[in-house]
């Protein structure tokens, strides 16, 4: 790289537009969309799609909801021409879908293109010629007037042949290719020259496509160019201003969104951004960016996984795992703090949607307004811009675990995949243990692997103590105490008795493989066991936390118990036990905690 790049490169000159309006505007509705996957996307493939692949992708684009689809460059090859004819002759295009074809301003190419469209219901004939200073100088060696003459002659040749498309509804489209590198006044001049030939009206508009063919400036400059054209071109009400951005500076999406603010009506692009060099605009991203702002994009990406599958099969390309919305990992959190925030956010949203389903709308609105927690009426989950379910993704994909993860992610996977709902304090204990193991593996781990770690750490702890049998007997014990009774308006002390249940236990254990029996008593099985251990010479401890839940349903369902014990020195340990008998599950949890001490 050069020490002083200014000696070789220069910044793109800005547009003189001091009173620009687009920064203060807000997008409130979706634009018209045109997919160019089958043309611009296809010509960028090392191995272009065959007719069968193009037919499958076309069908998918129709299902998504595209009403304008650039199906190809029919004058470029027999495959392109044949595909066009199959779409028309086999009536594969619904009546409300416009078939768009691209053609250069050359007579032989225009003739072949018209032939490919005979019998079509609705077509957009898209003519272009390049207009930038570099193209005029390097490629064509022509002046501005000569380049304008190419455009005018091409427009006239198309107009002269339209009578051959009898019964076909036709829209004409012109692109001053490399518009973003062209002087705006010259782009206006050549576009108006084409308009003079085609004579668009407010009732029968033409499309003026203003492509950012190669990104050479920041997206705000492109927005200025679009607004300048919208404000200065003649007969603006007879035009549909269209955008076609590429991604050379990785700002194709930004350029499009700012271009819409600047006054454009229509957007061309491809699924997942396939296209020349660094690609075209990603239509999925722009559409779902609108969706996350509450705007109906008029495109259906509710099964984005299936769309991605068809795209990858037909194009031979792979959607990057971090591709916005469509990538495998975009709804995945590895960071522990992210995982914890997502888990809490999803829980809050679940509580809001439950209320919305069970209460009248008026009560829901009032209740949400009064909630002290400030739970939102609208989606507001940390780190997730939209609900993954809206585009066919599942919540279990949201959180995955590697060495960077924390207790929140570990707890989330155990609960969602296996129903293991760890108490908060136990999450704090097990999270670092799991992270240490994952760190040693040096990779992401599955939910099953996490469960195995938990089982090894807690459930399968059988040394030094292992349970053989556990039996309990309950009996009632009378206790005496003084109570106050009312007699003739006076309170008098008297003796009373009450009954209390005492549980006696007998446990057969193995200690380091050697049989041992202990017995104890208390107000429940756990208290009796703790007493028995004390009688057997085990250092004193107490149970400070206990919870349990089912691990399934039906007669064969197991229960899992979580118990935290505290030793005389103040140190605590958690244990866990599983059994079909809830009492035995809790006993095993105590032994697990002792063994871990």
Outline:
The chain has 597 residues and is α/β, with parallel strands linked by helices. It contains 18 helices and 14 strands.
Strand composition percent: 15-25%
Q: Structural class, please?
A: alpha/beta
Total beta strand runs: 14
Mean pLDDT: 90
Stretches where pLDDT is under 50 for at least 5 consecutive residues are 368-372
Q: What's the shape?
A: elongated
Looking at the overall shape, the CATH architecture of the largest domain is: Alpha-Beta Barrel
Distance between the termini: 61 Å
Find the CATH superfamily of the largest domain. Aldolase class I
Task: Find the CATH topology of the largest domain.
Answer: TIM Barrel
What topology, given as strand order, has the largest sheet? Answer: 1-8-7-6-5-4-3-2
How many discrete domains?
A: 3
Largest sheet: 8 strands, parallel
List strands and helices in order, with pairings:
Blueprint: E1 32-35, H1 37-43, H2 51-64, E2 68-72, H3 78-89, E3 98-104, H4 107-117, E4 122-130, H5 133-140, H6 144-161, E5 169-177, H7 184-198, E6 206-212, H8 219-232, E7 239-245, H9 252-261, E8 266-269, H10 283-291, H11 304-315, H12 336-358, H13 361-370, H14 407-418, H15 424-441, H16 447-459, E9 465-487, E10 490-511, E11 514-522, H17 525-535, E12 541-550, E13 559-567, E14 572-579, H18 582-596
Parallel strand pairs: 1-8, 2-3, 3-4, 4-5, 5-6, 6-7, 7-8
Antiparallel strand pairs: 9-10, 10-11, 12-13, 13-14
């Amino acid at each position: 790289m050069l020490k002083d790049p200014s000696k070789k490169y220069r910044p793109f000159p800005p547009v003189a537009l001091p009173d620009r309006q687009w920064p203060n505007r807000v997008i409130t509705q979706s634009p018209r969309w045109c997919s160019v996957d089958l043309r611009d996307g296809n010509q960028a493939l090392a191995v272009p799609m065959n007719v069968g692949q193009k037919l499958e992708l076309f069908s998918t684009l129709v299902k998504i909801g595209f009403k304008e689809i650039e199906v190809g460059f029919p004058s470029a090859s027999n495959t392109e021409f044949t595909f066009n004819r199959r779409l028309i002759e086999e009536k594969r295009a619904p009546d409300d879908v416009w078939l768009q074809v691209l053609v250069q301003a050359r007579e032989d190419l225009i003739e072949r293109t018209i032939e490919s469209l005979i019998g079509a219901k609705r077509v957009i004939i898209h003519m272009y010629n390049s207009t930038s200073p570099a193209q005029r100088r390097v490629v064509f060696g022509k002046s501005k007037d000569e380049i304008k003459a190419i455009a005018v002659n091409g427009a006239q040749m198309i107009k002269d042949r339209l009578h051959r498309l009898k019964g076909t509804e036709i829209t004409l489209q012109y692109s001053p290719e490399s518009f973003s590198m062209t002087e705006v006044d010259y782009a206006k001049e050549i576009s108006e020259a084409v308009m003079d030939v085609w004579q668009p009206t407010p009732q029968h508009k033409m499309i003026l496509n203003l492509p950012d063919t190669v990104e050479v400036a920041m997206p705000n400059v492109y927005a200025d160019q679009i607004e300048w054209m919208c404000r200065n071109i003649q007969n603006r009400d007879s035009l549909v201003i269209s955008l076609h951005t590429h991604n050379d500076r990785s700002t194709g999406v930004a350029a499009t969104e700012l271009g819409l603010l600047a006054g454009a009506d229509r957007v061309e692009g491809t699924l997942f951004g396939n296209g020349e060099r660094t690609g075209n605009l990603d239509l999925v991203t722009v559409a779902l960016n609108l969706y996350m702002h509450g705007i109906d994009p008029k495109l259906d990406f509710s099964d984005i996984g299936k769309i991605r599958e068809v795209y990858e099969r037909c194009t031979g390309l792979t959607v990057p795992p971090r591709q916005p919305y469509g990538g495998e990992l975009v709804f995945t959190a590895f960071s522990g703090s992210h995982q914890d925030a997502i888990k809490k956010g999803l829980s809050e949203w679940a509580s809001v949607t439950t209320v919305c389903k069970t209460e009248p709308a008026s009560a829901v609105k009032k209740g949400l307004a009064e909630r002290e927690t400030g739970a939102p009426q609208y989606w507001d989950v940390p780190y997730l811009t939209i609900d993954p379910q809206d585009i066919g993704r599942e919540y279990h994909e949201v959180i995955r675990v590697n060495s960077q993860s924390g207790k929140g992610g570990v707890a989330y996977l155990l609960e969602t995949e296996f129903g293991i709902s760890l108490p908060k304090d136990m999450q704090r204990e097990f999270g670092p243990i799991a992270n240490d193991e994952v760190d040693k593996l040096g990779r992401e781990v599955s939910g099953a692997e996490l469960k195995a770690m938990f089982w090894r750490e807690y459930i399968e702890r059988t040394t030094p103590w292992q349970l053989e049998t556990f039996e309990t007997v309950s009996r009632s014990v009378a206790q005496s105490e003084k109570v106050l009774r009312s007699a003739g308006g006076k309170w008098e002390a008297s003796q009373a008795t009450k009954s209390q249940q005492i549980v006696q236990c007998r446990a057969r254990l193995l200690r380091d493989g050697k049989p041992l029996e202990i017995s104890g008593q208390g107000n429940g099985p756990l208290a009796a066991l703790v007493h028995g251990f004390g009688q057997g010479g085990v250092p004193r401890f107490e149970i400070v936390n206990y919870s349990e839940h089912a691990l399934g349903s039906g007669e064969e369902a197991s229960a899992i118990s979580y118990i935290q014990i505290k030793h005389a020195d103040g140190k605590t340990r958690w244990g866990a036990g599983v059994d079909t008998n809830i009492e035995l599950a809790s006993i095993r949890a105590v032994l697990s905690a002792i063994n871990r001490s």
